Structure formats: structure tokens, C-alpha cells
């Protein structure tokens, strides 16, 4: 465990007051290992150029590095072809791309999009907008009291008018791991497509887009130990080829006339303008780093941390840990404390060097379902260890004593 922590320069530097950093906000954005930082620096220092523009030495080198990264990402998620991997700015852009490039042409008044109450706003608001524009209807899979999809009502939610099921692979608040295989099977029977928001799930476990075969998968580089500003949309080739581009401009065209244009082949059709090339290359380095450790090892580390954190927080009086039992969730613990507001909790934990997130975490409907305005969230990654949980628990007790209400 110490070896992995040493791979991340920022985790080995104390805060301004000398307090050691305990970083428990990886669900928001993961820290970067040295190999990713080096890959980013090397690109800028040694061979930076715009991609797919120049035949000079740097131009060729940048193209090879970029496409090499695309190929590694495709292999990691099990895509059949590298051109099914589209570089975007992140999960939000990827989902909006599908909503506009697929949804505008495919949805008619009365068609249905199936979502649920645990979704991040990035996998909810785009569908709200699309429904408003197209006349489609949003339907919702209910949640059980412990924060899982109520699959007993799935058959009532999926109808002959359902065109798309949009679902997170892992809740960014509850940690709930959704049964993608069962949802895909049910969606296929109804003739619907499936989009998975993999922002939280992709960094933690093996993802194979062919088993079960999803139609779209969106995820972000910055949660996968890569740079910010880069993300991925996977789409089945036949779907991507049938879709019109979302953004138009340079690089995504085949021919341009004064009154009409034709589009480039995949993936260029959806990569208008100048890509964040260095970030895309560094994302490939992040993929190599994660695969070098292995998802089995990552799962072992994070599973042990989740089990310990869930148990120890459950022992604290008047503190409620939200979400299902650990066998149904990933390495996220969100909690409410009757004695301390989440924002106060986060600030007082910060005084002890503990970085957590407090608020609605871009899931206001979920928090309404939970009956709370905000929660405090601790999220774990491969660089955390049991001592971080010790500091977290001590920090919670410190916050409760500081704001004691007699």
C-alpha cells in the first residue's frame, strides 16, 4: 500500500500548516501518479504539435501517441474497434453528445427515456432538455429504501415506447453498483438502447462493453487517475455512423463547399477542432498504470477500505451511512450526522487534513429521496489505506465535540 501511495507526488507533501493530507475525495477527482504527470510533461516538452495536422516529425509523433492511447483505452473497455472510442472533454460532454447527436434524430413525441433518482445531474439534465425539445417523456425506475434500483418494478417502467435507458454504473453518492447486465437484457427485450454513465464505475472494476453489450459508455479521465479536460465516449460503430455530428468545424469534415459539407470517418466525425492532445496521451498512461496494478488488486484494496469505513462509521451514534450493504456498493461512504451539518463537517475535517466533499454532489433528486439537503462523502482509491480511516473517524469525533449540542 505504501508503494502505491508513493506513486502520487501530491500525497507525499504536507499541507500549508504541515498537516499530512488524507485525500478522500477521489469520486470527485482522483490524484495523478508520477507516470501520468511525466507523460503530460513529456508531450509538452518533447514533441507537442496539433494532431492530424502536420507531416513533420512532431506531427507524426503526436498522431502515433494519440492513436496509441485510443487503442489502449479501447482494449481496456473491450471495444471491438479503436474508432468506437471518441475523445471528449469528459463524461458530461459525452452524454450531451449522445443526447443531441443521437436523440435529436431518433426521438419523437411520446417516446420514453428511462432514468432513475440516483443519477448525477450530468445523466439527468441532458435528457430533461432532450425530452423538452423532442416531446419525449422521462420515466424513472424507483429506488428501494436502501438505495438500489427497484427491479421488481422494471417491467412496468420499460414499455414499447422506451427508446433509451440511461443509468450510472455506480452511484457517486451511495456507491450503489447497478446491475447493468439485467438492465441491458430487459432493454433489449423492449427494443431500447442503453447508455452507461461510467464516471464512477470505470476506475474501480473491469468494464467490458461487449459483456453485457452496452450501446454507449461515457467516462472521464480525471477520475481514472488521468488529466482533467479529457474523457471518452464509447459507442457501437453502427450507431455512431448513423448519428450526425454534435460539434462542427475543423477535422470532422470530409469535404466542405459553400452551401454543404460531408463528414469525416469515425472517430474524427465527433472530434471537431483541436483535441486536448497531451491530456489524451496522458490518459493512455493512466490506463497503463491502472492495468499494471490490476482491477483485482484495486478491488481488494478498495473493498477492504469500504468494509472498514462502513463498519466504523456505523458505530458512531446519530450518524447515518446512506446506501446499500457493502456487497452492493463501491468504495464510497456518504453520511449524515444529526449533530453536525455536512458543510461544517467538511470544514472541521479539513482542519485535520482530511479532504472530503459535502453538499448534494450534483444529485439533488437523490438527496430529496433520502430526505436530506446534503451529505458528507468520503471516497476511497487505490492509494488510501486503513490509517486514512483512522484519521477520518478521529476527525468526525473532533467535529462533533467542537460543535457539541447539549
- The number of E-state strands comes to 15
Strand proportion:
15-25%
Helix content: 25-40%
> Segments where pLDDT lies below 50 for 5+ residues?
none
Topology pattern, helix = H, strand = E: HEHHEHEHEHEHEEEHEEHHEEHEEHEH
Kindly identify the CATH topology of the largest domain: Aspartate Aminotransferase, domain 2
Structural class: alpha/beta
Backbone CA Rg = 22 Å
Q: What's the architecture of the largest domain, going by CATH?
A: 3-Layer(aba) Sandwich
The biggest sheet amounts to:
7 strands, mixed
Could you characterize what this model shows?
It is a single chain. The protein has 406 residues and is of the alpha/beta class. It has two domains: 2-24 and 294-402, Aspartate Aminotransferase, domain 1, CATH 3.90.1150.10; 37-292, Type I PLP-dependent aspartate aminotransferase-like (Major domain) (Aspartate Aminotransferase, domain 2, 3-Layer(aba) Sandwich), CATH 3.40.640.10. 39% of the residues lie in helices and 16% in strands. The chain is built from 13 helices and 15 strands. A seven-stranded mixed β-sheet has the order 2-8-7-6-5-3-4, with helices on both faces. Strands 11-12-15-14 form a four-stranded antiparallel β-sheet, covered by helices on one side. Strands 1-13 form a two-stranded parallel ribbon. The longest helix is centred in the first third of the chain and has 21 residues, at 57-77. It is globular, with a radius of gyration of 22 Å. The model has no long low-confidence stretch (mean pLDDT 96).
Amino acid at each position: 500500500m505504501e508503494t502505491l501511495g508513493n506513486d502520487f507526488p501530491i500525497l507525499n507533501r504536507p499541507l500549508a500548516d504541515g498537516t499530512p493530507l488524507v485525500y478522500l475525495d477521489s469520486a470527485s477527482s482522483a490524484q495523478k501518479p508520477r507516470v501520468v504527470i511525466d507523460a503530460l510533461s513529456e508531450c509538452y516538452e518533447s514533441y507537442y504539435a496539433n494532431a492530424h495536422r502536420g507531416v513533420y516529425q512532431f506531427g507524426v509523433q503526436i498522431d502515433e501517441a494519440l492513436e496509441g492511447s485510443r487503442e489502449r483505452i479501447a482494449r481496456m473497455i473491450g471495444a471491438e474497434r479503436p474508432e468506437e472510442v471518441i475523445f471528449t472533454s469528459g463524461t458530461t460532454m459525452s452524454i450531451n453528445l449522445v443526447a443531441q447527436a443521437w436523440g435529436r434524430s431518433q426521438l419523437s413525441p411520446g417516446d420514453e427515456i428511462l432514468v432513475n433518482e440516483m443519477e448525477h445531474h450530468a445523466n439527468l439534465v441532458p435528457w430533461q432538455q432532450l425530452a423538452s425539445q423532442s416531446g419525449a417523456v422521462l420515466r424513472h425506475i424507483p429506488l428501494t429504501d436502501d438505495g438500489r434500483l427497484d427491479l421488481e418494478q422494471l417491467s412496468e417502467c420499460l414499455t414499447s415506447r422506451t427508446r433509451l435507458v440511461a443509468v450510472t454504473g455506480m452511484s457517486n453518492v451511495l456507491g450503489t453498483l447497478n446491475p447493468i447486465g439485467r438492465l441491458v437484457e430487459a432493454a433489449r427485450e423492449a427494443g431500447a438502447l442503453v447508455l452507461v454513465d461510467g464516471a464512477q464505475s470505470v476506475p474501480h472494476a473491469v468494464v467490458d462493453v461487449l459483456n453485457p453489450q452496452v450501446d454507449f459508455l461515457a467516462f472521464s479521465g480525471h477520475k481514472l487517475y488521468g488529466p482533467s479536460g479529457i474523457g471518452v465516449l464509447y459507442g457501437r460503430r453502427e450507431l455512431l455512423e448513423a448519428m450526425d455530428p454534435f460539434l462542427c468545424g475543423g477535422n470532422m469534415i470530409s469535404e466542405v463547399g459553400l452551401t454543404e459539407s460531408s463528414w469525416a470517418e469515425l472517430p474524427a466525425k465527433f472530434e471537431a477542432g483541436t483535441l486536448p492532445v497531451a491530456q489524451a496521451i496522458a490518459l493512455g498512461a493512466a490506463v497503463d498504470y491502472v492495468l499494471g496494478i490490476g482491477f483485482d488488486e484495486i478491488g481488494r484494496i478498495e473493498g477492504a477500505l469500504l468494509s472498514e469505513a462502513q463498519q466504523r462509521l456505523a458505530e458512531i451514534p446519530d450518524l447515518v451511512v446512506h446506501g446499500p450493504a457493502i456487497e452492493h456498493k463501491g468504495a464510497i461512504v456518504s453520511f449524515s450526522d444529526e449533530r453536525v451539518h455536512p458543510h461544517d463537517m467538511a470544514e472541521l475535517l479539513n482542519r485535520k487534513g482530511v479532504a472530503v466533499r459535502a453538499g448534494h454532489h450534483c444529485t439533488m433528486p437523490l438527496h430529496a429521496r433520502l430526505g436530506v439537503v446534503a451529505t458528507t462523502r468520503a471516497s476511497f482509491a487505490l492509494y488510501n489505506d486503513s490509517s486514512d480511516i483512522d484519521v477520518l473517524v478521529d476527525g468526525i469525533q473532533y467535529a462533533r465535540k467542537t460543535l457539541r449540542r447539549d
